[in-house]
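Methods — Computational structure assignment.
A single polypeptide chain was analysed. Its primary sequence is given first, followed by the predicted tertiary structure written as structure tokens.
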Amino acid sequence: MKKLLTLASLLVAASLALAACGGGGDAPATDLLDAITKRGYILVSTDPNYAPQSFLNTEGARPAETKCPSDALTTAEMQGFDVDVAKAIGEALGVETCFATPSWDAITAGSWADKWDVSVGSMTVTTARQQILDFSVPYYYTPAVVAVAADSGITSLDGLAGQAVCVGAATTYESWLNGDMEGLGLPEASIYAQAPEGVTVVPLETDQECAQAIAAGRTDFVAYVTSETVVDANIAEGMPVIKLDGAVYSEDLAAAFDKGSTLDTASLRAKVDEVFTAMHNDGRLTALSMQWFEMDLTAAPNQ
């Protein structure tokens, strides 16, 4: 009996392993796209605190019937521009879209250990990131700007010299503020201004937390660097910040895939490129941009 039980246990373990690889009891998945199709959901990493790109839907309830893992969020529990873009990918694949919310530095570091399939989180394509991540075609473009506390008295970029400035950790904003042009990894034509002299960098987990900290009365920094879309949303929400004139650089934003994925990502990347190209051409990305940003950010800056 003990031998029979041991054999049964091994068979169960083997079936679970196949399911985890997307086999569902059939042949093992040939690549990541095949695994996603077989399991019936795509797991997308994004930020739950990055309005209007992605944020929790406090009025949304997890549906009773979902294929999403218990530790992942459903489309009913998330909202925003990136969320809608991710949903469009799932719809094109004929699967449910689910969301993982790891820290930003964990996403940009690569080596995801197959914990999620793709990042749709407004990630800027940089030369440094291209060493460890693969990217889709861009789905939108945003200017990076500086915002300051409304009572700081600062009205220009030069006024930040010698001041403390907040950024999200492991972001292009941090690279720019540190004067790390190699880490920033953008074409020279996309960089419009250099960081002020003598700035003290204060990194938080996300750049959205910088604005929230100022609103909460934190005073150890006077400004933060982020996407113009985030600053506009902060101001619309009544946060006590103002935007300095002029973008400091422009970002090409794309979906990212882990070069270290156990399963090959090439066919999934090709499918996402196909989805984004179709959404550019038929106006769906423009419509989503207008809905969430009240402006069209889907055309490359030189267009």
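Note: Residues 42 and 97 are 5 Å apart (CA to CA).
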